[in-house]
Write a structure and sequence with these properties.
Layout (H helix, E strand, L loop, with lengths): L1 H6 L3 E3 L2 E2 L11 E6 L2 E7 L15 E8 L5
Antiparallel strand pairs: 1-2, 1-3, 3-4, 4-5
Length: 71
């Protein structure tokens, strides 16, 4: 899913459009847009493997925005 979102131009790293092959470094600011939500996080740590319950230790949420759909 992450590759698909990245290849559609919905992820930026430090305000530059990222592709699925773009390297990520500690300190980078990632903005991810999916559905009606935009999430901005800062990378705190990188690891080759990590358990699901430890993943939240690798980033901090900077902003979380929701767009409402009006019909």
């Amino acid at each position: 899913m992450a590759k698909e979102i990245a290849d559609k131009g919905r992820i930026t790293i430090d305000d530059k459009i990222a592709k699925s092959s773009t390297d990520v470094a500690v300190g980078d600011k990632l903005t991810i847009s999916f559905g009606n939500k935009t999430l901005t996080v800062r990378v705190i740590s990188l690891k080759e493997t990590v358990k699901k319950d430890e993943a939240t230790e690798l980033y901090e949420i900077i902003a979380e925005d929701f767009k409402e759909n009006f019909k």
